From TrEMBL:
Protein name as catalogued: Protein-glutamate methylesterase/protein-glutamine glutaminase
Stored CDD domains: LuxR_C_like, REC_PA4781-like
Keyword Signal among UniProt keywords: no
Span of domain HTH luxR-type: 229-294
Domain of life: Bacteria
Keyword DNA-binding: yes
Lineage, top ranks: Bacteria, Pseudomonadati, Pseudomonadota, Alphaproteobacteria, Hyphomicrobiales
Gene3D superfamilies: 3.40.50.2300, Winged helix-like DNA-binding domain superfamily/Winged helix DNA-binding domain
């Protein structure tokens, strides 16, 4: 297994000379190198270890690099991993084909060690920034994911992946939509879809909009749970319960507005109504009522 804390670079190439050259150059930077001599071997390897970046030869016997990349991209768990194509083919049609298959970059052989290491650094930094943004969305309560025209999950925030796996009727393994959600997606309905979770909760699936040409951005929202308990216990509306729950977690009005897609001014108005209903004057007193209400309902 790769050492913790070290970048993991997967090199897929059927040439021993290329594998040897790249392994020496990349390991000199302190990264861990995994090698696969075919597309089939690479697809098996990534089921056990997720690399941070992949260098992929376009022309290989059997499963070529273009098809290997398409299959890697079809796995939602690998969607965030950048793929750099390597090949002696430099015609525009081959470059376009590699990018359309899901590659983020393209280098031609013979490969310069300085160039490939620079490209690895750039794409690792970009991939980490994107993953950090998804983690930040999760921490803010925005569980987002994108699907293609057929409903296949292209990427998702970590918590969204977990919620997708908990859905009744969801396929096992990689994050996927259940059949009811696929049917809803085909209708172009503007309204949200309620989906049952295996533990008895319900989720709401909502359409956010299109990302690029072929991806649809979707959002999962917990329907029930703490928000529903607060609504019933304190006599609040659904939106007021949502605002109050985030107040109890120490979020400022601006942060709550971003989480719930509200303006800070609207959040402030909700807080005024909440304080009046609860008979309190500030966030601290309101938060104390939240803790008490949730504890009472667990008892």
């Amino acid at each position: 297994m790769p050492e913790s804390g070290r970048d993991v670079v997967l090199v897929i190439d059927d040439s021993p000379e290329t594998l040897s050259f790249l392994t020496a150059a990349i390991e000199a930077t302190g990264a861990t190198v995994l090698v696969a001599v075919s597309g089939e071997a690479a697809l098996t390897l990534v089921q056990e270890i997720t690399p941070d970046i992949i260098l992929l030869d376009a022309v290989m016997p059997g499963l070529d690099g273009f098809e290997t990349c398409r299959r890697l991209r079809a796995d939602a768990a690998l969607a965030h991993v950048p793929v750099i194509f390597m090949t002696g083919l430099s015609e525009t049609e081959h470059i376009v084909r590699g990018l359309e298959a899901g590659g983020v970059d393209y280098v031609t052989k013979p490969i310069s060690s300085g160039e490939i290491l620079a490209r690895i650094r750039v794409h690792l930094a970009n991939a980490r920034a994107a993953q950090s943004a998804r983690l930040a969305l999760d921490s803010a309560g925005r569980f987002l994911f994108a699907v293609d025209a057929a409903g296949a999950v292209r990427w998702c925030t970590p918590q969204a992946a977990k919620l997708l796996g908990d859905l009744d009727g969801a396929a096992g393994g990689d994050p996927a939509l259940p059949q009811a959600a696929l049917a809803w997606l085909r209708t172009d309905s503007a309204g949200p879809l309620a989906l049952p979770v295996r533990d008895g909760r319900r989720l709401q699936l909502s359409r956010i909009g299109r990302v690029g040409g072929n991806e649809v951005l979707l959002r999962l929202t917990l329907d029930g749970g703490e928000i529903e308990r607060l609504r019933r216990a304190l006599g609040l509306t659904q939106r007021e319960a949502e605002v109050l729950l985030w107040v109890s977690r120490g979020k400022a009005s601006r942060d709550i507005g971003e989480i719930l897609s509200l303006s800070p001014r609207t959040v402030t108005k909700h807080l005024e109504q909440i304080y009046a209903k609860l008979g309190v004057e500030n966030r601290t007193s309101a938060s104390a009522l939240v803790v008490r209400a949730l504890q009472d309902q667990r008892a």
